[in-house]
Amino acid sequence: MKRGDYLKPLDWFTSAGYLFLYLPICILIAFSFNTSRFSVVWERFTWEWYGRLIRDPLVLDALKNSVIVAIVAMILSTIIGTLTAYGLYRYRFRGKSVFDGILFLPIVTPEIVVGISLVIFFVMIKYNLGLTTIIIAHVAFDIPFVMLIVRARLQGMDRTLEEASMDLGADEWTTFFKVTIPQLLPGIIAAALLAFTLSFDDFVITFFVAGVGATTLPLKIYSMVRLGVSPKINALSALIVLFSISLITVADRLQRMRV
Amino acid sequence: MEFTVELNRVTKKFGDVVAADNVSLQIGRGEFFSLLGPSGCGKTTTLRLIAGFEEPTEGEIFINNENVRDKRPYERDVNTVFQSYALFPHLTVAGNIAFGLERKKTPRHEMGRLIEEALDLVRLKGMGDRYPRQLSGGQQQRVALARALVLKPEVLLLDEPLGALDLKLRKEMQLELKSLQEKVGITFIYVTHDQEEALTMSDRIAVMERGRLEQVGTPEEIYEFPKTRFVADFIGVSNFFSGQVIRAEGETLLVRTDGNLDVTLPLDHGFTEGQRVQFSIRPEKFSVGPQGKGRDGENELVGEIANRIYLGGSIHYVIALSAEEKVTVFLKNERTAGQQPSFSVGERVTVSWHRDDSVILGD
Ligand SMILES: Nc1ncnc2c1ncn2[C@@H]1O[C@H](COP(=O)(O)OP(=O)(O)OP(=O)(O)O)[C@@H](O)[C@H]1O
Ligand SMILES: [Mg+2]
Q: How far apart are CA A127 and CA A209, in angstroms?
């Protein structure tokens, strides 16, 4: 038996797995180009739904909110996450292992729990729900992801590079900016892109902390779906999927990159 | 004498591990000083203490007669060539060399000239635009050297800088480094676990073992007069004996070895009758003649050739002097067309050596 034959069942499973993952998305994208209002039957190709989408002021408003939230959350969580990861890696202090250990906790906590706890928190401190609370919530759930990616990068970094830098006359800050950051940069950018995507795509947590008036794209889709599925929603979803996939692909490339 | 680096009773502990144990050293200006010892003996730790990457648990370190206790690595006038080279992968060769100059705020035009000079010095002219990953191991090593030397430090610390190179390149670089050091006149503190490297390059050598300094001296002193069994064993080959002092006679100590051989040693006032003594003799100090025809030296013993290894230029013998005591002897190959003074296994011979070629060892 040839090696190829032996592997056949595995190939089959792999293909089935990918089909399972991507077929619904492909169908969704395909039907965003369908002239029929009723998504299940194919008629003719059209750009119409995309045209309607970009002329819908409510959608554009939600897009603007999403972009603002994602960018601000990305910047804040990347800075905070990177510095925290570096601090945990570099310095020894009491309870360090505890901090290392609970890093995963926010990631595995169900989103609905995070959402409810945040909304209770905001109500408790009497903070009005709106864009700011969305941003705060997104920064909070982005940080552990940023830290994980930056930490992986740090663990692959050669410590002696920092020593060499200090040896050549650079103080701690100069070393951090001239040597450490350039070493971590692919990881930091990857983390930023991931944070942007997570924030841009988030529905559950945003749903709880958004309050009235502050609508992001996923929230907008949800409210549109409640009025019935239309190819316009397909078009919007298709755009979000393509955008997210491209960002994540770039992030993945960066994360594997050697400096 | 003026010292550039001085260690005064320096101890460094990592938990229970004593990596440097009460180390005192004085290193002179312009000296090529080697730290030699087996893996894990504390060489790197000692270097890192001087560079400022580790703080001593006890003791003081002086650089240019100044106590550097509170000085960060970037405030010390020493530079390091790391074993792994630690070149910045995101900078070009020129960028790497410029790194330290920029920290010193060297003017732009001068920087270009200094970088060119440094590249020239390590024979890497025209390679300034390359990235470290585009260089061979030997070239990377020279960039690391140039990056440190361009700052003209008082002291250069080198941690097994040739460790990653193959034997041939290693030999070449040894000579290059040595002549470079003479040219620039900077103090080199050079870590190695290769005794031959230390012997050929150094002005002085410190032999370390388990965090302690066993002996400090010139290569000749270390080889000819090892102070401890460890030094005699670690550097070159030695024949070890132990025995009991019979008596002192003039300039001579008469000793009976554990194998019941009577030998003479140079007088050492530390020893009195009946005391135990350990000594060693280097293999090339012996001369060998046919039985009854001793050649050279006050000590003469009869033995039997137990083993013979022909190496071309020299011949190594193992000769049994008593039931337990065998010595390794290196003889020059003296064979000429006229004669054949070589011995075969099983032949009985007279082994002789000078009293003063026996070296008494401490513990
Ligand atoms: N940061 C550290 N933490 C704990 N122990 C350490 C640390 N650094 C060194 N040691 C220990 O100190 C001892 C001396 O280490 P050091 O690196 O100085 O040895 P070395 O002589 O340079 O050895 P090698 O020739 O293998 O490089 C070793 O037992 C080592 O395990
Ligand atoms: Mg070492």
A: 11
**B207 half-sphere exposure, CB direction, 13 A CA radius:** 24
Q: What is the pLDDT of residues B167-221, one digit of tens each?
A: 888 888 898 889 889 988 899 999 999 999 999 999 999 999 999 999 999 999 9
Per-residue pLDDT tens for B15-57?
999 999 999 999 999 999 999 999 999 999 999 999 999 999 9
Q: Quick one: which ligand is closest to B210's CA?
A: 1
Q: Which residue positions in chain A have pLDDT lower than 50?
A: 1
Q: Which residues pair with B67 in a beta bridge?
A: B62
Residue B241's contacts (CB-CB under 8 Å, 6 or more residues apart) are B257, B258, B261, B263, B278, B279, B280, B281, B325
Nearest CA to ligand 1 atom 4: B14
B44 touches ligand 1 (CB under 6 Å): yes
Q: What is the pTM of this model?
A: 0.82
Q: Please tell me the total number of residues recorded for chain B in this structure.
A: 363
Q: Which residue has the tokens 């409210």?
A: A223
Quick one: closest CA in A to B132, which residue? A259
Helix (H) or strand (E) holding B239: strand B239-249
Contact B6, B50 (CB under 8 A): no
To which residue do tokens 């039907």 refer? A31
Spatial separation of the C-alpha atoms in residues A46 and A38, rounded to whole Å: 14
* CA B40 – ligand 2 centroid, Å: 7
**Which residue's structure tokens are 């070890």?**
B240
- Domains identified in chain A and CATH numbers: 50-256 (1.10.3720.10)
pLDDT value for A175: 95
| DSSP SS3 for B330 | strand
CB contact under 8 A, B73 and A174: no
